Structures are given as structure tokens and as C-alpha cells.
Write a sequence for this structure.
């Protein structure tokens, strides 16, 4: 008679009102943590910002052809430094020459992400000042101190740190504000100058003023939920910023070298001076940028793309998955902000009330659903837990999927952290609630069973008492042993860390192959692998699955060896033994620790077959019963009749060569046919004929060691014939 288990106390079920009240209270807690009404919880705020980066990565670059982008970047880079005759800092006449060439090329506006805060040379400075006035398309970069809240200028005589501010007063503040985690996601349209009663546009908006023919101090109108610029609404991300919708990672916009715009017929580069040849990348009639029309009607941003310029910043977009691949130069960030305005391609943030509604919905739904799953009396209690987790995972997938979809399709930024937190809090709240309700019953069960079993497994017994049964059952299965050939020598030649990395890579690949054929991995012993088929789930074709797995292991190993050769890693080969037979399968061990494994003579024979490969220089040896079960599906040859160490009864062993579903190469078919004829002659004691036929087989496959073995045996038997009762059995002396 079994030990009686006390039944769970019945729940009243009279009303779900307590559940609803508790779920709603948890939702209010999440709202208080995430909405910032009372305080801002920094870690959650930063986590929410990181979800924006996730959405950028999931979306990838916008499908916008580069030729449709209206911003071109002229980059000051190392090649330009080397190609102009004067060392950096360059005379301002270079910039004047650049501006005039861009004007000739039809550029609509030119923005310098450079702050000319000090005079350099009177002649060059005056040349640039004239070029700014003459062309009327230039915006110079400015900077100043930053106040709290909006940007605030603090000097009454402010020239915004630019000696060229007086040229035509077209200036833009170059400062880029990053978020608390250092990532640049936002852009402020303007800076406040209280001394003059002005709002000064940021660099991108100052350049847009030139493009649209606005005055130098024209700025966006500041409304509660949006900015209005040139009649177009720009959704706010916070009180002073918009969220940049990055078109792609760095170098998404066309980049033209500074020197290539300078290099016209009137400018001599270092190469032209050295070689005497005219290159003229700007105005050459065939290859020049001027006749190409590249700059016509475009906005040109001029800035540094040299890391030494310290203007490289982290952004949400990345060119890959490695750390540091999300860096972008400041001039490119300004270019993205400009293109957003030109295209009307803005990111809109979900309003707080909609976010709060989502929190209430997800928290309450998760709490009620999880509580219901735990109340239902399933045959196995874990079923309710699985359903609750599955329901939660589905909710999280919906939150993530919908957020990415809305971001990618509609430029809509929903909150992700708060609804995810609502789901987690709702789930954990339900778990704790139900745990408290059932704790008394579980303590009684623990008290009963702790008298009979190890306390370490009491919790598992409470949920699934049948799992305590030890022992196993007898069944016919197929077991595999594999080993790396010469592994000891390989391990002695490598550093321990390298050896572990190589072994992990190899074992991972082999394990994947075993699992893909529904095999059961028994254990690893160093480089050796033990696996079996037919349990715990019965498989009528377990022998064929084992054969297919073994062949695929060799195929996978071949690919890995080719890759390792390129990486100067050691070359390895493996041996495999397969055997089918009756064995005991089940949980073996003690109550505190046991393994699901197989034991028996058939298991030991598989291990012996793996080792026997060494005698025949073969790779894949299978037992007699395995061959009988799969003979219609494989191509194999009989190797020998063996008596392995520790046994007296002989067993016929075979070399598995391939699956019969794969076309057999003509040479292999010819070799097998000749080999089998030779083996028949050998068994008939026709030694000379057997030798000749084995030698004929060797001509087809010169590396076959088994033929050599039989030739040596036949020559021995020619001089020393075996006894009359000889049956061709070979006794294997080594494991």
C-alpha cells in the first residue's frame, strides 16, 4: 500500500476580485517605476534606451538608395593630409577654395562641422570670409557652454566661438548630446541665447535654413509634444530633443575626400607637384566631380573622419555585431539629422498614457492566466508551470515583435521595458501568490517523503514521484563508441587552453550530429563519445539511425578538418564502433545522483569494435546484429570473424562504407566485389587464389590494410595450414 498524499486544499473560486485587485496593484507598481511621475529609476531608463538600439539592429539600414540621399560628406582624412602641400592646420584659403568649388558644382548649402575659434593667418582668414559672403551657402560651426535643460549661452558678447560668425551670421551649434549610457540617439534643434533673446539653431538646422532660404536665426517652433520646422512637425522625444532615425551605420552617406574637391586645375596636390601630371579630380571633364553633378542641389557637410580628431561617437546603428562597430563621426550624425528633416522621416514616441494602459493589460493578464494554470489539476503539476511560462514567452514575443514591426514599418517607438517588466512582475506575483497558498500542503509532503528519500530530491518527488524509481529494463538498442585517433600524442603537443578549445569545438560538432539523428548522448570520457539509439523513445530503425549518424560524423569532421588546416590546428581522425543487441537501459546510480545510461555485453562489444579498428586500419566497424538490421540500406564489407577480449563466442564484423541511397563510386564497387571474392577463396583454404585476388583488390585500393592482413595470413597458412576444424575466426588479443 502506498503512502497517502494529502490533497491540496480547495480554493473557494467564488470570485476573481482578489486576483484582479492584486494584479492591478502590481501594474501600478510597474507604472510608478517606469513612467517617472514620482522619480526616475535610472537603470530602467537606460535599459529602455538600449531597446531602441536593439530595434535599429533588427531593422537594419533603411532601404534608401544612396543616390537619393541629399547629403554628401566631404571628409578631412589622412589621405587628404598627405595629398596637400601644406601641413595641418591648413590655411583658411583651402576652405575658401573648397567653398568656391562646391558653389561651382551647384551645392545648395555647405555646413562646417568645424569650429574656427581662433584667427590663423590674415590673408587666408580674409579669403574664407570673402568666400562665405560671395557664395552665400556656408554655415560655420559654433560652440558654447551648456546650461541645464535647454542649451544656454552665457556670454553677452557671444560670437559662438567662431571668428567667421560676422561673415553672414550663419552659424550652427555643433555640440551633440549623448544619453546617460554614452550613446548618441537624440538631436536638439536649437540653443537658447538669453543675452540676445535668441534661439541659435544647431548645425543641422542652420544648414537647413540655408537650404530652404530661411534667415540665420530661424528656429523650430517649440510646442508641448512637437517642434514645428518650416511647417513640418518634428515629434519630440523629450522636452528639448528629437530622436534621430539613423539611415544606416557609418559611411551610409557618400564620402568625398577633402583633397578631391580642392584638386582642380588651379590647385596642385603633392602627387601633381611630384610627378608633373595633371589629375584634377574636381573639374576633369571625364572623371571630375564637377561634370558628374554629384554636388548639384545637395547639402554638403564638411568634417573630420580621423579618429585622432576625437569626433567619433557611439550610435545605435552598427556595421556588425562586434564591440566598437557602432561608432560614427559627428559630421555623419549631423547628416542623418538633416536627411530626417528633408524626408520627413521622424521617429514618434508612444505617449505615456498608452504605455500605462499596456502595462495594466499585460500585468493583469499575466497574473490571472498564470494563477489559472496553477489552479487547474493537470495529470502532472509541471504542465501548469509549463503553460504559464509558455504564455509569458508568447507575451514577450508579441511585445518584442510588435515593437520591432512598428519601428521598422511606421517609425513608431513603443516602450518595451515597461510591458516586459509588467509581464515578469505579473508572472512572479502569481507564482508567489500560488506558492503561499500551497506551501502548507507541500511542507506536509516534504515531511512524509523526507523519511524515505534523499532531501535533495524531495522537491522533484513532490512534482513527479515516479522519477525516483531506479534500475532499468532490457531492450534491444544500438550503441556507439567513438574515439580520436592518437589523441594522447595530440594532447601532449598542445597547451591546455588550446586543447580544451579544440576538444570543445569537436565535441560540439559531434553532439550536434548525434542529436540531429535523435540519438541519446550517454557521456563524454575525454575525447571519447558514447551514445545510443532506441531509448528513451523507442525507435524501430535505431540501427539505421546510428549508421547514418556515424557517416555524418565523418562528413562533418571532414569539413572541420579543412577549416582547422587553414587555422593551423592539428589534423585529427576518429574511429567508431557500432553494435546492436540486448542491454539494460535506465537510471543507474543512487537516489542523490544517477545517470540515464546503458550497460551489458552488447555495450562492451561496441567499445571493443571501436578499438578493433586499429588492427584493420578502418574507421567505422559495426557488429553482426547491426549489419543484419540495416543490410538493405548500407554498403559494407565483411571484415572478419572475431573473438574479442573477454569473450569466447565469435562475432562477424563489418566495415560500414556508405549508405546505399548514395550512388557508389565505380572504383569502390569494383573493390568490394573483388575483395568479397578473395574472402570466399580465403575461407575455402584456396590460399594462392586468395592471395592473387586480394592483390587484385589492392590494385584498385592500394591503401587497404585489411587486404594486406589477409595476404599475410594466407602466406602463413600456405606453409602452416590451419587445423581441419578451422572456421576462419581470429582471436583479438588487445582491447
Amino acid at each position: 500500500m502506498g503512502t497517502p498524499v494529502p490533497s491540496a486544499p480547495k480554493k473557494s473560486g467564488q470570485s476573481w476580485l482578489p486576483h484582479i485587485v492584486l494584479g492591478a496593484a502590481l501594474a501600478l507598481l510597474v507604472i510608478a517605476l517606469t513612467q517617472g511621475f514620482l522619480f526616475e529609476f535610472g537603470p530602467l531608463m537606460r535599459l529602455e534606451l538600449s531597446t531602441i538600439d536593439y530595434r535599429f539592429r533588427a531593422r537594419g539600414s533603411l532601404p534608401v538608395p544612396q543616390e537619393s540621399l541629399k547629403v554628401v560628406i566631404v571628409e578631412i582624412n589622412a589621405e587628404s593630409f598627405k595629398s596637400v602641400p601644406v601641413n595641418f592646420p591648413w590655411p583658411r584659403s583651402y576652405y575658401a577654395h573648397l567653398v568656391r568649388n562646391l558653389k561651382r558644382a551647384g551645392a545648395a548649402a555647405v555646413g562646417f562641422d568645424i569650429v574656427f575659434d581662433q584667427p590663423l593667418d590674415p590673408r587666408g582668414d580674409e579669403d574664407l570670409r570673402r568666400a562665405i559672403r560671395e557664395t552665400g551657402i556656408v554655415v560655420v560651426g559654433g560652440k558654447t557652454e551648456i546650461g541645464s535643460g535647454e542649451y544656454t549661452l552665457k556670454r553677452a558678447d557671444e560670437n559662438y566661438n567662431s571668428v567667421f560668425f560676422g561673415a553672414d551670421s550663419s552659424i550652427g551649434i555643433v555640440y551633440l548630446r549623448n544619453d546617460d549610457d554614452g550613446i548618441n540617439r537624440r538631436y536638439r534643434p536649437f540653443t537658447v541665447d538669453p543675452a540676445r533673446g535668441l534661439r541659435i539653431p544647431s548645425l543641422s538646422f542652420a544648414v537647413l535654413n540655408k537650404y530652404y532660404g530661411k534667415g540665420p536665426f530661424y528656429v523650430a517652433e517649440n510646442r508641448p509634444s512637437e517642434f514645428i520646422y518650416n511647417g513640418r512637425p518634428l515629434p519630440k522625444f523629450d522636452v528639448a530633443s528629437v530622436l534621430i532615425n539613423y539611415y544606416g551605420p557609418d559611411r551610409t552617406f557618400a564620402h568625398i575626400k577633402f583633397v578631391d574637391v580642392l584638386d582642380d586645375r588651379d590647385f596642385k596636390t603633392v602627387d601633381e607637384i611630384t610627378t608633373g601630371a595633371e589629375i584634377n579630380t574636381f573639374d576633369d571633364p571625364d572623371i571630375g566631380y564637377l561634370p558628374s553633378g554629384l554636388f548639384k542641389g545637395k547639402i554638403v557637410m564638411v568634417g573630420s573622419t580621423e579618429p585622432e580628431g576625437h569626433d567619433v561617437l557611439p550610435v545605435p546603428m552598427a556595421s556588425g555585431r562586434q564591440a566598437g562597430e557602432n561608432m560614427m563621426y559627428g559630421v555623419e550624425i549631423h547628416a542623418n539629422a538633416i536627411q530626417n528633416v528633408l524626408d520627413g522621416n521622424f521617429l514618434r514616441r508612444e505617449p505615456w498614457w498608452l504605455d500605462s494602459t499596456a502595462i495594466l493589460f499585460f500585468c493583469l493578464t499575466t497574473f490571472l492566466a498564470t494563477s489559472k494554470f496553477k489552479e487547474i489539476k493537470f495529470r502532472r503539476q509541471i504542465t501548469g508551470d509549463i503553460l504559464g511560462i509558455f504564455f509569458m514567452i508568447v507575451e514577450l514575443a508579441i511585445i518584442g515583435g510588435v515593437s520591432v514591426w512598428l519601428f521598422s514599418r511606421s517609425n513608431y517607438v513603443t516602450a518595451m521595458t515597461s510591458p516586459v517588466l509588467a509581464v515578469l512582475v505579473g508572472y512572479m506575483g502569481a507564482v508567489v501568490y500560488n506558492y503561499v497558498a500551497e506551501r502548507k500542503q507541500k511542507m506536509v509532503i516534504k515531511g512524509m517523503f523526507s523519511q524515505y528519500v534523499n532531501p535533495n530530491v524531495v522537491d522533484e518527488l513532490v512534482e513527479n514521484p515516479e522519477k525516483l524509481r531506479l534500475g532499468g529494463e532490457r531492450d534491444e538498442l544500438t550503441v556507439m563508441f567513438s574515439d580520436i585517433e592518437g589523441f594522447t600524442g595530440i594532447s601532449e603537443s598542445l597547451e591546455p587552453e588550446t586543447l580544451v578549445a579544440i576538444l570543445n569545438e569537436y565535441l560540439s560538432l559531434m553532439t550536434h550530429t548525434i542529436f540531429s539523428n535523435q540519438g541519446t548522448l550517454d557521456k563524454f570520457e575525454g575525447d571519447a563519445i558514447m551514445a545510443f539509439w532506441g531509448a528513451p523513445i523507442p525507435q524501430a530503425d535505431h540501427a539505421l539511425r546510428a549508421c547514418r549518424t556515424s557517416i555524418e560524423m565523418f562528413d562533418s569532421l571532414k569539413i572541420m578538418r579543412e577549416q582547422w588546416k587553414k587555422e593551423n590546428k592539428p589534423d585529427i581522425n576518429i574511429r567508431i564502433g557500432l553494435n546492436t543487441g540486448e542491454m539494460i537501459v535506465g537510471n543507474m546510480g543512487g537516489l542523490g545522483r544517477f545517470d540515464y545510461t546503458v550497460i551489458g555485453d552488447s555495450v562492451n562489444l561496441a567499445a571493443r569494435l571501436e578499438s578493433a579498428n586499429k588492427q584493420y586500419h578502418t574507421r567505422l566497424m559495426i557488429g553482426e546484429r547491426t549489419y543484419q538490421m540495416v543490410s538493405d540500406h548500407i554498403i559494407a564489407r565483411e571484415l572478419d570473424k572475431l573473438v574479442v577480449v573477454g569473450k569466447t563466442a565469435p562475432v562477424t564484423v563489418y566495415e560500414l562504407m556508405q549508405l546505399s541511397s548514395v550512388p557508389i563510386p565505380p572504383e569502390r564497387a569494383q573493390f568490394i566485389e573483388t575483395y568479397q571474392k578473395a574472402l570466399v577463396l580465403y575461407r575455402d583454404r584456396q590460399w594462392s587464389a586468395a592471395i592473387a585476388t586480394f592483390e587484385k583488390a589492392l590494385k584498385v585500393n592500394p591503401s587497404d590494410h585489411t587486404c594486406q592482413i589477409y595476404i599475410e595470413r594466407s602466406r602463413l597458412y600456405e606453409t602452416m595450414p590451419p587445423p581441419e576444424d578451422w572456421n576462419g575466426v581470429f582471436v583479438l588479443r588487445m582491447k
Remarks:
- Confidence is low (pLDDT under 50) at residues 1-14, 146-151, 448-458, 464-470.
